TrEMBL record:
Location of the region described as Disordered in the Swiss-Prot/TrEMBL record: 233-258
SUPFAM superfamilies documented for this protein: Putative DNA-binding domain (SSF46955)
Organism for this UniProt entry: Kribbella hippodromi
Alphabetically ordered keywords of this record: DNA-binding
Protein name: MerR family transcriptional regulator
PANTHER family given in the database record: HTH MERR-TYPE DOMAIN-CONTAINING PROTEIN, REDOX-CYCLING DRUG-SENSING TRANSCRIPTIONAL ACTIVATOR SOXR
Domain HTH merR-type: 1-50, 121-190
Amino acid sequence: MGLRPVDLARRAGVSTQLVRNYEAAGILPPAPRSDTGYRQYGPEHLSALLTYRALAPGFGAEISTDIMRAVHNGDEALAYRLVDAAHAALHEQRLATDAANDALAALAAEYVDDQPITGPSLLVGELAHRLGVRTSALRVWEAAGLLAPSREPGTKYRRYGPEAVRDARIIYMLRQGHYYFEQIKPVLDGLRRAGSTDALRTAIAERRAAHDRQTKAMLYGAALLHQLINETAPQTNEPAQLKEQAPPGASVPSAPVP
């Protein structure tokens, strides 16, 4: 039975215009037209729409679009590579969070050290070079209330003393971990005020929880993607061939239920 754009939209909880946009972007397979020019969608379009909507929260809109295009083009290998690359990227983010946790803990210890912080006073270009960021990034951090450099009396050049340099290192590492300014500010406030690492631990825990949520979303989307590929791929005797080649005692996955 043919489906109208509004039928797909209702099933997916989106607008009819978005359904048309998805088709134009290649997220849905091309829809044939009736004699009067109306789009004629079918179950395959609904499956593609629901699959994309499931993929996007975990893989992101851009990668999910590329995956769907690959599937519709019959390039399963590319779709699998895109899925693997997304999982690998998330794993790298997890490792980066772990590394940042260790490094941030060492930096946070400087806030509770009784000894005064020593070090040179740096100009904005010098600090940017030391951190490996643009000078504009330091100005953005200052505008967000995260950094407060002093000014030279005559030239009004920004000067970052040892404490500001320490704060900038904390900000840089948190930004590398994709933390937002509103998450970084309470971390710095707690460290500056009482040397408290509570906000820092909370921020890292929230980041790890976000990774877990993304993994769950990716698994759910991959399940629908697997189903969609099985629906669109030509049937083969691969399971039987695997069974013939399997060594004695090895288990062979059963064929998918159509």
